[in-house]
Structure formats: C-alpha cells, structure tokens
Specification:
Blueprint: H1 12-20, H2 26-54, H3 62-83
C-alpha cells in the first residue's frame, strides 16, 4: 500500500464538518477516491455513447459497435494502468 502525505487547504467550516463526519480518515478518503474513480469511468462510457449517438450515419454494424467497445476498453485499461 502506498503511503502519501497530503495537505489540504480547506475552509475552516468545511474542515470541521468533514472531520466531525469522519471523512478525513484514511478509510473514508479511500472510499471517496474509489467512488470518484468509478464515477469518472462511468462518465467516459457515457461520453463514448454520446459520441456514437452523434455519428451521422445509418445504424452501426456489429463490427463497428465491437470496435467502439474495444476502443473504450483500451482507453479504460490505459487509464487504469496510470496512463491518464
């Protein structure tokens, strides 16, 4: 497990509320980061779907759909591997 030292500059009221809510513990921060990573992955899938919907073409063939899926998966794999 990686150990990072992070300094946050937060408004005083927000810092107090986050601390009182237990959101500044390593476990809570891990959950928040994982949720954000998942949210961004989902957004990338929807962005790809939006790009597909914007194509001014008749229906996509099965191979074209599969190519788009592969492209999204490759992008996701690169992102998961630290490439973006």
């Amino acid at each position: 497990m990686a150990e990072l030292e992070i300094k946050l500059d937060l408004p005083e009221a927000l810092a107090r509320e986050a601390e009182a809510s237990g959101l500044l513990t390593p476990e809570s921060i891990e959950l928040l980061l994982r949720a954000e990573i998942d949210r961004r992955r989902i957004n990338r899938v929807f962005d790809a779907a939006d790009r597909l919907a914007a194509l001014d073409m008749p229906r996509l063939s099965q191979s074209e759909v599969e190519a788009e899926i592969r492209a999204v998966r490759e992008e996701r794999h690169k992102s998961d591997a630290g490439g973006g």
